[in-house]
Amino acid sequence: MTSPRPDYPRPQFVRDAWESLNGEWEFAFDDARVGLSAKWQKGETPLDKRIQVPFSFESRLSGIGETGFHDVVWYRKSWKAPASFAGKRVLLHFGAVDYESSVWVNGELVATHLGGHTPFSADVTEALRASGDNVIVVRAEDRGKDLFQPRGKQFWEEKSRAIWYTRTTGIWQSVWAEAVSPIYLEKVKYAPDIDTNEIRIRAFVNGPIEGRDVLLRTVITFRGEFVAEDLVRVRNAEESRRVKLPGLNDHGMDRLWSPDRPNLYDVAYELLVDGASVDRATSYFGMRKVSIENGKFNLNNRPYFMKLVLDQGYFPDGNLTPPSDEAIKRDVELTKAMGFNGARKHQKVEDPRYLYWCDVLGLLVWGEMANACDFSETYSRRMTAEWQEAVERDYNHPCIVAWVPINESWGVPNIQIDERQQQHALAMYHLTKSLDPSRPVISNDGWELVKTDLFTIHDYESREEVLEQRYSTVESAVNAMPANRRLSVGGFEYEGQPILVTEFGGIAFKKSDWEGWGYSGASDDEDFLKRLRAVIQPLRRSGVVQGYCYTQLTDVEQEINGLLTYDRTPKVPLEKIKGILDAR
Fold first, then answer.
1. CA distance 263 to 268
2. Cα-to-chain-centroid distance, residue 81
3. Taking the CB of residue 38, how many other CB atoms lie within 10 A of it?
4. What is the pLDDT of residue 1?
5. How far apart (Å, rounded) are the C-alpha atoms in residues 164 and 158?
6. For residue range 337-373, what is the model confidence (pLDDT) as tens digits?
7. N or C: which end of the chain has fewer CB within 10 A?
8. How far is Cα of residue 442 from the mean position of the Cα atoms in its chain?
């Protein structure tokens, strides 16, 4: 069994004083829902199973591998805070727990959270014992058949089929503890401005600062060389500064971030209270700009053709949870080796360490929410709250260049005729723009778009001549109806946005023991490459299409549309795929 990941779970904002709580926990199914009445939350009741956190019980790496419906599960772990935590505030972090969770420490409720794909934390200092072990208990409830619950590709039937996969219940991202001072730097947010060579830094300080002399020192370096230093007196919970970055220019893209040159600035923060250093953290940012000018998608003020691959983010042994940090990095490396410059993470709010490796190695990412299947007021509340948390978590990553709150009318199945569902998609577009005006937002990727910054089309047509004709002019592209769906609804029409084909291909090619399903089938290697050329080259030659997203990176369970098998073995030599992508 692969050992639990020791890697720092929040690589965009790092402290030294932390401890991973991944590893073996006690575990129990609670199908009869007796845990609360039996007071399991007190932490005095041993649980009958053992599980390897952060893998969900449905995965083999959890040590359980049970894929049946168990909507309520419990976790229990004894933990002794390290000596280095003495005199500090202790924060308990959960990367993601699917779906509704409650956390107790020594019988005291310290946190509740709704949403299966976003992080939450609790200050557990007051609940900790002065000495000895502390008992952490987690209850997670994931309603496997609830179609109004944001679930992404997790199937609501017992056995996966077609494009739907095995469910994930409970903890599936890292659990960890962190020690901070009573006054500490809670987070930072970056707004790069390559036009003025400035970085805007919003710093958020937590703690009783009134009546104290609080200073925040920021030191910025690039490849180990000093760039700038800033010192600000903290008077409010949020302080905003603009820092000039001398030496930054775009003539040679020498310090700008792009997939070809993933340049990153390092940042060191120090918080001083009444002259004493109380908190240190390190971070990084990338200077890059995403914009739309005269109907063209630009990266760093230059037109940029996006060659994306659809990445479901599933793994044979871990399901939604990568087995290791090396596996995450390898996915990014394989994506780049095939000639793609980006990935659309499909129906999954991905582990932050994936975004870290995309920042470091240079890969564009479209951030996408895991949608529900049907519409209701309950779904709307759930979706709106969790999507805000996802945008907040990933805001600083330079690799993210677009937001996709909704895909293919999932959660809004009647959007063509239902004004409420149209208003929901429109609200998600404007909400996202209010949270982050620096990136384009796609209201409903694939078809039935309302207001949108990119005009995105899903088209699984396999005939080269049809694709050539369909994307030969703007008029034919925007009036096409792939999958017999209208591309715009609710009175919205094409307004000159960049046109991208953001799902296509899906060529099924069996190169493993998995039983397969796909959109179109290849008989052998040469047939597969022929079919790949037939769908990619018309889009690359089109003067209309400004980018594409090929379906997909890997096989997933029974779906064999991947360029790689489920275990990440290339179906054909990577350089042959790259040659097709690079051909003009």
1. 17
2. 30
3. 11
4. 37
5. 11
6. 999 999 999 999 999 999 999 999 999 999 999 999 9
7. C
8. 16
